[in-house]
């Protein structure tokens, strides 16, 4: 797979270990300290996670299924997957995110809690950029990570994620549609202090081409939108 370099990755890592960590921990959490926009993003993201879990469980039980959650953030997906019995590798480029995900997993996955029985398998936590991951997993999932990279970097990331997946790959990205493109341009005219990183939009056709190049095809598609959150969710399988 092509190496993501040229500074994007270092900027992203630094952001998600510092201000980005504080911002996204709040958005992905449950406290009231979020503003209206953040609350809207929280709701949209929760829908993406919910839809991804639905895509995953539609094909049958996750018990014993190996899942690589690439760019796991605070564990929004990894933890519910572990509750479903999946054997999860939760990895992220940000050490702060991985530590938070691990803390939350320890709180939520303790045996006996919420009558989780049989006890879920604790995910394995790892600080790693997704380009350095190796091994094979039944399923690879990568939610809301591609937004941090331009398409020319995203192509290599998609190819690498596909190479780790044996049966399916689930990706979400911010779709490059006219409306969202416009919204983003307007946003760039008024950059807020918390918008420390660039957001890159991806066209569905480009993502599909990147998958086709490595022998994968899209089997299911979904679109999640709230007022300030837009995500295209795709499930790909070997063609
Ligand atoms: N996937 C999680 C979710 O949906 O809850 C987190 C999404 S958050 C917007 C993006 C995450 O991607 C951050 O935790 C960030 O540290 C991580 N990330 C960014 N670039 C990455 C890379 N190259 N490899 C692995 N993780 C990355």
User: What small molecules does this complex bind?
Assistant: S-adenosylmethionine
CATH fold-level name: Rossmann fold
Tally of helical segments: 8
Rounded radius of gyration (Å): 17 Å
CATH class membership: Alpha Beta
* % residues in beta strands: 15-25%
Give the tally of structural domains: 1
Largest sheet: 7 strands, mixed
Strand order of the largest sheet: 3-2-1-4-5-7-6
CATH homology superfamily name: Vaccinia Virus protein VP39
Overall pLDDT confidence:
91
Q: Give the % helix.
A: 40-55%
Shape: globular
How many β-strands, per DSSP? 7
CATH architecture verdict? 3-Layer(aba) Sandwich
Question: What gap, in angstroms, lies between the N and C termini?
Answer: 19 Å
List the helices and strands and how they pair.
Blueprint: H1 8-17, H2 19-28, H3 36-58, E1 66-70, H4 78-83, E2 87-92, H5 95-108, E3 124-127, E4 137-142, H6 151-164, E5 165-173, H7 178-189, H8 204-213, E6 216-225, E7 230-238
Parallel strand pairs: 1-2, 1-4, 2-3, 4-5
Antiparallel strand pairs: 5-7, 6-7
Helix pairs in contact: 1-2, 6-8
Bound molecules: S-adenosylmethionine (SAM).
